Amino acid sequence: MTMKINKLEIENVKRVKAVIIEPNEIGLTIIGGPNAQGKTSVLDSIAWALGGNKYKPSQAHREGSVTPPNLKITMNNGLIVERSGKNSTLKVTDPSGKKAGQQLLNSFVEELAIDLPKFMESTSKEKATTLLQIIGVGDQLIQLEQQEQAIYNERHFIGQVADQKEKFVKEMPEYPEAPKELVSMSDLILQQQEILAKNGENQRKREQVTQIEFKYQQEVQQLEVLNQQLLDIQTKIQEVTNQHNLTSNDLATAKKSALDLVDESTEAIEKNISDIEEINRQVRTNLDKEKAEEDAKEQRAKYNELSEKITEIRVKKTKLLNDAKLPLPGLSVEDGELTYNGQRWDNMSGAEQLRVSAAIVRQLKPECGFILMDKLEQMDMNSLSEFGQWLEQEGLQAIATRVSTGEECSIIIEDGYVAKTNEDTQQIASETPAVTATPTNTWEGAAF
């Protein structure tokens, strides 16, 4: 059975002198009045009566009163809770008349329901932990969040490495005209030697042309002499003529061969030899840049792969929370913190914070059908009306205080007494159903 408060009777607690209040069965009962008149004292009295002496106010006895505090709360199942006498002795009587104690009260009283500020002042992560405890997916979500955090940390490190490598690549110089591979000194020298040998052979052939040409001139002169002696030495002329023809052929061949000869320059190789260190430095720089680019691409690929894994885990987390039975639509846990309609706690309005708190606290112990709320003046009238309607839909009883004497208040407390009830003021249509409260100024010394 869902336990709710049917009636509460309070005398001489803090600022309360004597009040009797019968709160609404469901929805919002607002205790209004100016500051320092006893509104919060009513909530403190309920918390003390039901929660035990750990909720006893430090100055529980009303100043100036000779009669000790007396508390009496009647629950909707007939259970009666009383604290009275000098020592505020607890007496719990169940509907059958049997006596009971604090243990019975603890079975249906949710600690946060009578101490809502404790929940509201907890950290966002503590609120999220409470919600996950309710819906029963805490361990699974923690495991997913640990996986997500581990991958996120790894991705973050890899992303830093990739950024550094990409930055390093951009800052590195590049030499497009440099060869792709390092230049070998021995190869250049060998090439130089081969060209020099070839050029030497060409020079030898050029010298041979000179020699043959000199020989040719000598033979021309000799031929002239021999022609003068032709008649006498015909036979010798014929021999010389034949030899001259042969020499002429050799000369033509040698000249023709010499015309096709082209000397190769060793200037480029000599320059390469002298510049080999600079060339190889450029080649190494280009090779290092190519390697750095490959490393950066590899790190970026790993980063993207880990991003996909994080997305998969977040999808699982979302599905886990969507499949869970949440106490309020729009509630969720993101990055270990409680959210409502996508907003974190510090971005929620005061009305939203109260609604979220009420929904979560109510779900912690469903047997506890009531909740206490202080300082409800942070809600405007529209928010107050919507909140009251939500409480009614949830079948939840809320007893709250508000610094106000307006029509939204179920009762008005002044100077420790019930000064006015909603029977004396115009009742708002549906947001605050009627309550009964008995004002009295004659309880000093009365006994329950």
TrEMBL record:
The keyword Amino-acid biosynthesis does not apply. InterPro entries: P-loop_NTPase, Rad50/SbcC_AAA. Pfam families: AAA_23 (PF13476). It comes from the Bacteria. Residues 7-313 form the Rad50/SbcC-type AAA domain. GO terms for biological process: double-strand break repair. This is Chromosome segregation protein SMC.
